[in-house]
Design brief:
The chain is built from 3 helices and 26 strands. The longest helix is centred in the middle third of the chain and has 10 residues, at 117-126. It has 333 residues and is mainly β. The strands form 9 sheets. The chain has a 5-stranded mixed β-sheet with strand order 21-20-17-16-25. A 4-stranded antiparallel β-sheet has the order 6-7-8-9, with no helix packed on it. A 4-stranded antiparallel β-sheet has the order 12-13-14-15.
């Protein structure tokens, strides 16, 4: 799956590619894969494309991601606003379906299915994310009545052709663009529908991990932590689901306005009932950073964890990054 920017001189959208190509191959020899190039992008988020220009502007579109099961059924998923439809104006989930291992992606009668505003906010109200009254930046009381699906998510297609999505979801007020990412409940959710084409009321959401404390602190000079941290998903052959993430440790207010943290570790959540409920297995790395007895700084910031897509019975497989820091830095590239 390849993404490209149509205009290399477009500095404004240099981080927002607008063309995405889907490729597949069975030609793998001695560890090398030969790909057949595609001339036509699967996704073309440009003004000229009538199928996808309804999701513009580019900077508000999450990167598309896909998963196909062993029967050839699968989904492409992305988050965006859908501006031509007043029923789907929230930053929601949109998807296309394949029934032939990705040879075509138009299995839906309507080509693209979206979770409506009504259903999106209903299921996240039920999940406990929405409904609270908070003060906005001007001190006015507002209700958190709208969910904002973030730009990072994972997708799994089960053997019954149902779709599982693990996504970052943030509460907001429908009359404002402000995201309340440090409010309780902001974080990772499991979103599920066993038949998204024929059952628009079949969407459900369940909380996986509250990330609001981590989201208070700054991990990157330009990327908000709710975008910098992302979940990763693995599904076992026994149906168990695993989700990992980095978590900021010891988040504290340092100057009356800004928050700091002492370390980042990796935490694991598990579901034994196909995502209906989740158990926190806690800190699975638990390697605090700091200075040793010789005064040397020892960096143990575990970042960007990735699980193998498939897990065995009772075990999953993890990789992550540890930056080589020579001292404590509140912001990490």
């Amino acid at each position: 799956f390849v993404c490209v920017q149509s205009n290399e001189n477009d500095a404004e959208n240099s981080n927002h590619p607008n063309k995405f190509y889907f490729n597949r191959t069975l030609n793998i020899t001695n560890g090398y894969a030969s790909w057949d190039g595609q001339d036509t992008p699967l996704f073309d988020f440009s003004e000229e494309n009538e199928d996808f220009n309804k999701f513009l502007p580019l900077e508000t579109i999450g990167r598309p991601i896909f998963n196909i099961n062993k029967e050839g059924i699968g989904y492409f998923v992305w988050s965006a606003y859908r501006t031509e439809n007043e029923d789907t104006s929230s930053h929601s989930i949109h998807l296309m379906k394949t029934e032939d291992f990705g040879e075509s992606w138009n299995a839906f009668d309507n080509y693209i299915i979206s979770i409506s505003d009504e259903k999106l906010n209903e299921m996240f109200h039920t999940a406990g994310l929405l409904g609270s009254i908070v003060n906005d930046g001007a001190g006015n009381a507002v209700q958190l009545d709208e969910a904002f699906v973030g730009y990072n998510y994972e997708v799994f297609t089960n053997e019954m052709d149902g779709i599982h999505i693990v996504a970052v979801v943030i509460p907001k007020n429908s009359q404002s663009d402000s995201l309340y990412y440090s409010h309780d409940g902001a974080g990772y959710y499991h979103i599920f529908n066993n038949d998204p084409e024929n059952d628009q009321n079949g969407w459900f959401a369940n909380p996986i991990r509250d990330m609001s404390e981590s989201y208070k602190t700054k991990m990157h000079p330009t990327i908000p932590t709710w975008q910098y941290f992302s979940p990763d998903l693995s599904v076992g052959i026994d149906g168990k689901m695993y989700v990992v993430t980095s978590v900021a440790m010891d988040v504290t207010l340092i100057d009356g306005e800004n928050y700091g943290h002492s370390d980042t570790d990796i935490f694991l959540s598990i579901s034994n009932d196909f995502g209906s409920s989740w158990e926190d297995l806690g800190n699975i790395t638990n390697t605090p950073s700091g200075t040793n007895e010789d005064g040397e700084f020892i960096s143990q910031f575990e970042l960007h964890p990735h699980l193998s897509p498939e897990a065995n019975v009772g075990e999953c497989f993890l990789t992550f990054q540890v930056p080589a820091l020579t001292g404590y830095f509140p912001e990490i590239n």
